[in-house]
Amino acid sequence: MKKFTLLLTLCLGTFSAPAQEVPYNGQPLTLDDCRQMAVQQSKELSQARTQEEMASYDRKIALANYFPSISATGAYLYNNRDIALISDTQSALLRNAGTLIQGQLDAALAGATQQIGAAIQTNPALAAEYMGSPLWQTVLGMLQQTDPSAPAGLVPNVAEPINAIGADIDKALHPDFHNIWVGAVTVKQPVFAGGKIIYSNQMASLAQDLAAAKYDMKYADVIVDVDQAYWQIISIANKKKLAESYADLLHQMEKDVDHAIAAGVSTQSDALQVKVKANEADMLLSKAGNGLTLAKMLLCQRIGLPLESAIVLADENLEVIPQPQNPAQKSLEDIYAARPETRSLNLATQIYGKKAKVVRADMMPQVALTANYLISNPNPYNGIQNVWNGGMFTAGVMVNVPIFHGLENVNRYKKAKAEQRLYASQLADAKDLIGLEVSRQRKLYQEAQEKLRMASSNLDAAEENLRSATVGYEAGVIPVNTALAAQTAWLGAHSEYIDAGIELQMAADQLRKAEGELK
Q1: What local confidence, expressed as pLDDT, does residue 134 receive?
Q2: CA–CA separation, 514 and 41 (whole Å)
Q3: Which of 1, 150, 196, 404 is deepest in the core (most CB within 10 A)?
Q4: Burial, 477: exposed, middle or buried (Cβ in 10 Å; 0-12, 13-18, 19+)?
Q5: Interior angle at CA 465, CA 463 and CA 470, nearest 5
Q6: HEC readout, 51-116
């Protein structure tokens, strides 16, 4: 009792408050109720469930790699300097092209007029005839006329219209590149990735199973812990009732001895012996009460209730501890398949095997189809214009062939294969240990059964001995110390019977856990 009280004190000191309080309606709690409440409030199980949920998302992420990826990209760029397609000299020539052409036309016409006049002057007769002719004077006036407003002019003024055309062309050759807008929609569909997508999906599926196996391990630990706390309360509650009966019996004996002393058939020595035993019984009862309180506090912590909750268990008033059903014999192969530890190591071995194949896929060519739609402003598709005037569609095939990167992928592949061998070796070791554990738990279960059978037989004998001693003491043929010894033997036998029943319950739990049944 002292050891158990110290154990509970240490446990409750470690878990000073419940992890998550759940409502309690005051009804008696069955073992299944306690299990469900412990599962609901366990932070470790909650974390394991979250990890399992994360693994399911990883599987969906891996599945998405089978489908095409579609992305849209937009960009804006500001340039503090503009971009010109011609030089400043060429730009000036283009803007003044009309003026230059006009000057050349005027010069050419003036030269032609001078040449005609010089030719006429070389012939005096012709010069006298033509220079005085009104018709010839009219022709000379028309040749010398360059004003476009004069209707008789032969050479119009082309400077302004050509300059305007040149200015328009110059403007087109100076697009506004200060503000650039670009948009693109890209579609990419993997065609061949060396099996990387397939193996990644298989790894994600195995990782989800691994998360489920880890949850089963945590679940089994929670169930065993809450079962142990539950049955410990049943044990202490029965021992408390036993201590109450024992104390009542001794206090009654105190009264009987006092009467016997008054009648002169007993001595003060007998009274002192009974009194000492009665005090021991009271102390035992007090320890049992304190132990029961601490045991209930421990169970409250396990199932998420406030430590001060006045819980009542459905089996708390059982007279006889129920015996569990004998578990069915299972082969080691079935146990290996059921145990979450071996399942975890087996899945880890398979995962690293797939990981090696994924790394190997990185050393193979990668083939993908791609399609893009591009749009920009300035727009280059009809000259360079600052307008949103349609875009361009492209489609093609991308091939990536890894050649050399310091043997990185080769070493990653070897590392993954080594990890696979490591987990395979750990799996073999785990199977050996599980085989030993199952054999040990089966032996302990059989010993617990035998112990309970012997405790039951001893209890029957102790009860018969107590009955005979009580009858003899009341008849005055048996001394007090003999009656006290019979009561003490009965108390020890009853306590051993309770301990054996609880031990059998826990041995059954441990055996079910060893055989992978608690999940």
Answers
A1: 66
A2: 24
A3: 196
A4: exposed
A5: 95
A6: HHHHHHHHHHHHHHCCCCEEEEEEEEEECCCCCCCCCHHHHHHHHCHHHHHHHHHHHHHHHHHHHH
One-letter identity of residue 220: A
371-384 pLDDT, tens per residue? 999 998 888 887 77
Neighbouring CB atoms inside 10 A of 232's CB total: 22
Query: Residue 233 in contact with residue 316, Cβ under 8 Å?
Result: yes
Q: What is the Cα–Cα distance from 115 to 6, expressed in whole angstroms? A: 135
4 pLDDT higher than 50: no
Mean pLDDT for the stretch of residues 11-18? 38
Phi, psi of 475 (to 5 degrees): -80, -10
Record the tokens describing residue 284, joined without a space. 């035992």
CB 186 within 8 A of CB 73: yes
What are the φ/ψ torsions at residue 496 (nearest 5 degrees)?
A: -65, -35
Query: Taking each helix axis from N to C terminus, what angle separates 159-172 and 97-121, rounded to the nearest 10 degrees?
Result: 150
Q: Where are the strands (E) in 435-486, listed by range?
A: none
Give 306-366 as a DSSP string: -TT----BTTTT-SSPPPPPPPPP--HHHHHHH-HHHHHHHHHHHHHHHHHHHHHHTTS-E
C-alpha to C-alpha distance for 200 and 202, rounded to whole angstroms: 5
Q: Choose the weakest-confidence range: 43-52, 206-215, 407-416, 468-477.
A: 468-477
Looking at residue 217, its pLDDT comes to: 92
Are the C-beta atoms of 482 and 471 separated by less than 8 Å? no
Can you tell me which residue has the tokens 């395979």? 424
| Residue 202: per-residue pLDDT | 94
Place of tokens 């145990």: 339
Query: Do you find a cis peptide bond into 156, omega within 30 degrees of 0?
Result: no
What is the reported pLDDT for 19? 41
The tokens of 329 are what? Answer: 């014999």
- DSSP SS3 for 185: strand
| 189 phi-psi bin (left φ>0, alpha ψ -120 to 50, beta other) | beta
Q: What is the mean pLDDT of residues 482-488?
A: 83
Quick one: how many helices (H) and strands (E) in the chain?
14, 4
What is the distance between the alpha carbons of residues 195 and 366, in angstroms, rounded to a whole number? 10
Distance of CA 393 to the CA centre of its chain: 40
Q: How far apart are the first and last CA of the chain?
A: 33
96-132 residue pLDDT tens: 877 777 777 767 766 766 776 666 667 666 565 665 5
Task: Looking at mean pLDDT, say which of 260-274, 321-335, 342-356 comes out highest.
Answer: 342-356
Q: Which residues face 398 on adjacent strands?
A: 368
In angstroms, the Cα distances linking 208 to 52, 54, 450, 474 are: 6, 8, 43, 72
Instruction: Give the strand pairing for 392-400 and 69-78.
Output: unpaired
Looking at residue 117, its pLDDT comes to 65
The answer, yes or no, to whether residue 151 has pLDDT greater than 90, is no
Q: Whole-prediction pTM value?
A: 0.70
